[in-house]
Amino acid sequence: MNWESLTDPHPMYDPPWDIIWTPLTYEKGASVLHMLRYEVADSAAFFQILQDYFAAYCYGMPRPGNCPTSANRSPAKTTTGFFNQWVFEAGYPKFEYFAVTEPAGDSTRVNLTVAQVQPETFADFQAHADLYLYSGGVPQIERILIEAAPTQEIEIMSAFDVDSVKLDPLNWLLGTKSRRDDLTAPILEASDPSSPTPAETAFWTPAKPAT
What is the per-residue pLDDT across 8-38, written as a single tens digit (0 to 9) for each? Predict the structure, then answer.
């Protein structure tokens, strides 16, 4: 996603004429449709949205603002906010996350912290995402809501002995996701957005919760 300018970002909708035929419109447009399929959580509903959109606007001149109208007819009731942030606003999120686990009776409490560390020229994003909780290599999948906020803490209870976590491993969500294995406390501070994101390790050995 190095095609997105960090200093002079533009939304996918109505960009300057000299960047119309660029990955901003082609790659980001495809990614938005990919995310919409995840957001409606129903492949049949997703393809019906595409059919409805085509039937309503074929041979015409539709605007991106027509997309929510078609999507909101689906059983998933996708909101207009999805299109507002991905089509009419610039940029994409850069997530850094960290988690610690602790016993909670017969369960495991997972305390997840998520930070959005994209440049200040980009807004904070709201998105659903899959969080994989691994126990002995076997995943338990939790669908979480990441709020449009610089930092967020999420508590998840699991019946399994969780030994590793990974955010959006199937890459439904447009953006970068970096697990901060270097931290020993569930606190994230915004990192330098111009620096490379740290590579994720294959698995993570959880630290004890901070006291």
Answer: 788 888 888 888 888 888 889 899 999 999 9
Phi–psi pair at 204, nearest 5 degrees: -130, 130
Rounded-to-integer distance, Cα 124 and Cα 175, Å: 12
Name the β-bridge partners of 8: none
Arch. (CATH architecture) of 94-179: Sandwich (2.60)
- In this predicted model, what pLDDT tens digit does every residue of 36-64 receive, in sequence order? 999 888 788 888 888 888 888 888 877 66
Mean of the pLDDT values across residues 57-84? 67
Q: What ranges do the domains of the chain cover?
A: 17-87, 94-179
Judged by phi (left if over 0) then psi (alpha if -120 to 50, else beta), residue 62 lies in beta
Q: Are 78 and 39 in contact (CB under 8 A)?
A: yes
Distance CA 1, CA 93 (A): 11
Grouping H, G, I as helix, E, B as strand and the rest as coil, residue 16 is: coil
**pTM, full prediction:** 0.79
Q: Determine the Cα–Cα distance for residues 37 and 107; give it in Å rounded to an integer.
A: 32
Distance CA 23, CA 68 (A): 23
Strands lying side by side in the sheet with 107-116: 151-158, 107-116, 94-104, 176-179
